[in-house]
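During the reporting period the student researcher (J.K.) took over the structure-prediction task from the postdoctoral fellow and processed the backlog of single-chain submissions. One of the processed entries is reproduced below for the supervisory committee.
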Amino acid sequence: MKVLDSGMPEETYWNSLFDIKAILAWLNVTGEISPIAEIGCGYGTFTVPIAAIAGGTLHAFDIDPVMMERARHNAEGAYLQNVEFHERDVLERGTGLPSESMRTVLLFNILHSAENRLLLTEASRVLQPLGSLFIIHWRKDITTPRGPSMVSRPDLSTVLGLADGLDLFFRGNSRTIPPYHWGMQMIKGDPGENLNTARDK
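J.K. obtained the following structure tokens:
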């Protein structure tokens, strides 16, 4: 089941819409964030640089065989051997990863459908206790050159509502990532420091 409005433009143009260095800095990519599950890897725009820095295993999922082949090609071009690619309908079948097996889950530009809670539920299932879920999406406060309809784009409050009861907690790590995106981090299973309030740093 494809996420609505998920058509991809040409790769070079797509990559130009992100400040990849700024996003990597916000993620604070180190070896300690592995193993990683990335749901909706696309061209491997983030798969490749994150896997190169983190060093540990990154499981990259996508439903589109063309995207999967391109991402695999890009990983091979970067001489990476720590990426495992899964052509899989995660909405229909989940990731297939063992429960509590991941330290990090990435949901980038994918939470804009009626099935968003399913993705968050699967993220919570595979995360280890105190593991991190990172979400990036198109901003809805400005016009952007790509992205789904404004009404379908999530904001912080929307995500917090969808995550209610899933053992995922917001701890204040949310920010605008110029030029066109915003991001937030959630932690699995840390209610003692629950800061589930809609705010943006």
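The committee noted the following: The two ends are 34 Å apart (CA to CA).
J.K. will present the remaining backlog at the next meeting.
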